[in-house]
Fold:
Amino acid sequence: MTPLPTIRAACLNAPQASEPAWLIEGLWSAQAVGIIGGQPKCGKSFLALDLAVAVASGTPCLRRFPTHQSGTVLLFAAEDAPHVVRQRLEGIAAAAGVNFQSLDVEVITVPTLRLDRLEHQQALQETVVRLKPKLLVLDPFVRLHAIDENVAGEVAPLLAYLRTLQRLHQTAVALVHHARKGAANERGGQALRGSSELHAWGDSNLYLRRSGPHLFLTIEHRAAPGTDRLELALSTGSQALALEVLDDQIVGQRDQSQPSPQQRIEEILATSTKPITQRQLRQAARMRASHVAEVLAQLIANGRVNRSADGYRLNP
Structure:
């Protein structure tokens, strides 16, 4: 049997200094494939369309993240009517200060696109060849197939097809996907519905999550530092809705009016007539177990809380 070809690491092609590392700085790597994930009604489609407007116009995404490469965007929005897609794009373009009529976004108009069918794969590839998009947005994954998302062997070929599109045609791919129900306390990638292949596939992944009335964005990259819990808001402009990054000063002012994790735990303990277990505290405070444990350890060290076999009690 013929051995596999190899090459010494030092002989591998070096990256070109002129090649940008980002499609959208800090948000989406150059020619990256990835997931825009989150629970229903978290703004995933709004975020995907904001990426589309940024790349098509060369303007900063979310009015915060500079776009380093611009060009045609190819979009398939399976769950929204054409007039809804237009309305949202117009609103985001207005927020970005972009002329909507000149926006280089091409919308796929077929009613069904099934990436588990060879003829649909070939049609999408021919469209990519013709338009040469900088970004391909597919929203959402669940409408692109009839496979079992929990079976890695069925998910992997679809993701491999999209990876092949990216490599052959130098186009970034953003795939909108839902998180599992009841996974609000899990990390973004771990909360995605279906096979773990989806999380592992992404070069750049964006995860949206609600905490009460607040909306947070977590950014992950395969080859760059990410960002955790960047707060967003869906703001109403003169024409339509668009996501925006909340100013740090606004967040700080709001946070000053909110009880700290330590204050929340102390308030729960103060209102209880008997010791409370750590699990009961976590459920009442709606905090992660690790965060509750850290707060309790600090309160015990400061003499504010006593621990017994029955649970935790606030000292008088």
